[in-house]
């Protein structure tokens, strides 16, 4: 499943609105909007619904987390081979609700790469983002944790965090794609994120809890094409 | 899915032999043997294959781990509601490869119970097993970690650990079911475990990596009926 | 250093008011009040000030945490032998700000016992306290985490949590001493805790941040002798 | 306490040979050798002995770990202010036996810097070292974990890991000092480490468990002046 930019990544977390049949419905809406607008939308379902969603939609599906192990005696883990076998395209890593040790991020990025999968590392400030970029993931998302889930977008509340991070990361790594996370709630937030030099957004509750997720996402995709 | 005793629990861990289509095959064999012998066999697939297996077999399917949260902003988690929605029967908790904080075991047992699911708490010594029994899970598994994956069964190598644990637990909790884990490899290990006062076994590599898992499991089920 | 009951345990946490010379001053006040009132007061300084405090006061000094290891290649750890060598009397375990895995609590209690030191395990609800009591620590502290640091005492706000916990624990363990933690702020909270069947209290900010810690502690000690 | 290069850092871990009075003796030997040879030797005692050692020797003393918090309600933690108050010069971070989350390393480096202390971040491979260098610590130590405690030095067994790491780090950060850890056992290992482009070594058991630590360290210091 090809990932292109601008990219809109929808993290379903483990919200009750995104479990079981509701998870599939939200993924199907994302697929429809992506096909209509031509903007790549990736969805990140919970682990239990992950395989079913990957079978059911023609857009990239990402895990919310991936452990740094090879297949083996790792009870309760999710490894790159689980994802590949289920046609999952890759994984978020180091989300603010699932922070990882530096050595685990390094190993998980390497393992996803080895099996041909996409890695998107979240980071919460300028220096962590710079550090994460040195691990050569496919993409980074900047998420100041104090804005996550607030409905206040980093691109609006603290545009300087975004521009500084883009500048810091670009000094170390010219190729990594940079997304803007934390508080992305409106189509306008998406537009601002792109204008600040990022290549897309990572959002969650604004989509999952929206009364009209299709209209919201459609506008977000359109506004990403600034 | 009713759980009765003697009970044979097969933890597939994240072995390469139990990912994707191989996972389904191992689960189907377990289902066949269970139906043939009348002994309940439960399977514990990795998270990504979990929902598919629960849809595909008529034996209890358990998660390998469950987080103690309600549905919500918990990226990378698996909660009781994920399991219920996917018709998964319950979960292992505190496996030696996924040890949990005491407060997390207490909360996860309570949450599984609240949504009507089965909890099986692993413990690695007499005092931890006694402590875990005070949390009132449905079942306990005794797994001295130094024997896990060794092919040496606790029921054979250290029968006194089993009898002491059964005695200690029974003083505190008359109702919890007690299984024997760690190193269970042969039908004879199963028989010994039952004779030592447990009501079943928890095993992993002996089944997953067997060249003839069906024959092995069939004999184990038969030997459990001592 | 003998520990007797009623017992008042002062957790200094890592508050700025209890670092370095201020730590020593707070410990000296506790020593004075203990000697004056005849009530045992134990102090729990941060790790760096721990040895100095243990050399400087004639009351029990406890660590805030202890790892479950033997001496060895455990960078950044504190083990029972460190405490014994420094004349520290024992340790808190599983404080709500330093929650431990069940297996670590079990092992740390056992290791402290083996070197002759005192263990005080914190637990946040009835079932965790019951479980912890099965590990046979010297003492337990009940601390509903939603009350910690609020200035609202569990003995006042939720007396039923205290009485239920005492009853549950006593069914499993007749000998463990039970303290009341979380929100203990006034001499009256101490009195209530004792009347509800506990043998002392564990408190922190009320003492550390008091403008007159000596008067507060003196009254608390007096009120503990109901 | 000024830190200059070449630098020999002695991590005492929590070996029985380095607890209490034995800890002080090992620190005193290090002080003597440092004064005699003019090479800076820093010692890293366990937390409980840390303050006493910092009062007793005229060489840099480092903590083995530092939490990323400000002073406050963090039971069982060690923060930068504890170290500063005790005249400790700084801290190791992310040692292989105390791995940290990326966000914790970033925050701890920043907090140590803010209070004027030295930070030495350990990393286990080329990409983690590059990432850590982006956090701008004072120094880095390269420690392939498969060599730690083996008596086989990375500078001897895998010189290419050292040269690659030096090259990778130098691309991103011209100023960070780079040390060589893992398996450093002999004066010759120290010499090789310097010749491969590092500015010193981090070692542990070879010194702590030596029958003649003074002679060993003296030769190591001399061999560091290649």
UniProtKB/TrEMBL annotation, chains A, B, C, D:
Its EC number is 5.3.1.1. It is found in: Cytoplasm. Pfam families: TIM. The keyword Cytoplasm applies. Substrate binds at residues 11-13, 148, 183. Gene3D superfamilies: Aldolase class I (3.20.20.70). One of its GO terms (cellular component) is cytosol. InterPro entries: Aldolase_TIM (IPR013785), TIM_sf (IPR035990), Triosephosphate_isomerase (IPR000652), Triosephosphate_isomerase_arc (IPR022891). It comes from the Archaea. Keywords: Cytoplasm, Gluconeogenesis, Glycolysis, Isomerase. The keyword 4Fe-4S does not apply. One of its GO terms (molecular function) is triose-phosphate isomerase activity. The active site is at residues 95, 143. It catalyses: D-glyceraldehyde 3-phosphate = dihydroxyacetone phosphate. One of its GO terms (biological process) is glycerol catabolic process. Pathway: Carbohydrate biosynthesis; gluconeogenesis; Carbohydrate degradation; glycolysis; D-glyceraldehyde 3-phosphate from glycerone phosphate: step 1/1. It is an enzyme of class 5 (isomerase). Involved in the gluconeogenesis. Catalyzes stereospecifically the conversion of dihydroxyacetone phosphate (DHAP) to D-glyceraldehyde-3-phosphate (G3P). NCBIfam families: PRK04302.1, tim. Belongs to the triosephosphate isomerase family. PANTHER family: TRIOSEPHOSPHATE ISOMERASE. Homotetramer; dimer of dimers. This is Triosephosphate isomerase. It comes from Caldiarchaeum subterraneum. The gene is tpiA.
């Amino acid at each position: 499943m090809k990932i292109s930019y601008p990219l809109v990544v929808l993290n379903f977390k483990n919200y009750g609105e995104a479990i079981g049949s509701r998870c599939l419905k939200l993924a199907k809406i994302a697929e429809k909007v992506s096909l209509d607008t031509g903007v790549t939308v990736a969805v990140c379902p919970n682990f239990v619904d992950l395989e079913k969603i990957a079978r059911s939609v023609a857009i990239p599906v990402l895990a919310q987390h991936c452990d740094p192990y090879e297949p083996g005696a790792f009870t309760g883990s999710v490894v790159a081979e689980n994802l590949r076998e289920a046609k999952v395209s890759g994984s978020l890593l180091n989300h603010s609700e699932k922070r990882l040790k530096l050595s685990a991020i390094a190993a998980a990025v390497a393992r996803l790469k080895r099996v041909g999968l996409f890695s998107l590392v979240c980071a919460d400030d300028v220096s962590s983002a710079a550090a994460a970029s040195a691990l050569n993931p496919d993409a980074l998302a900047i998420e100041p944790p104090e804005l996550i889930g607030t409905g206040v977008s980093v691109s609006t509340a603290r545009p300087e965090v975004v521009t500084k991070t883009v500048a810091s990361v670009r000094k170390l790594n010219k190729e990594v794609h940079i997304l803007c996370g934390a508080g992305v709630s409106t189509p306008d937030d998406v537009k601002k994120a792109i204008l600040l030099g990022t290549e897309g957004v990572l959002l969650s509750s604004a989509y999952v809890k929206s009364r009209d997720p299709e209209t919201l996402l459609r506008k977000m995709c359109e506004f990403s094409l600034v």
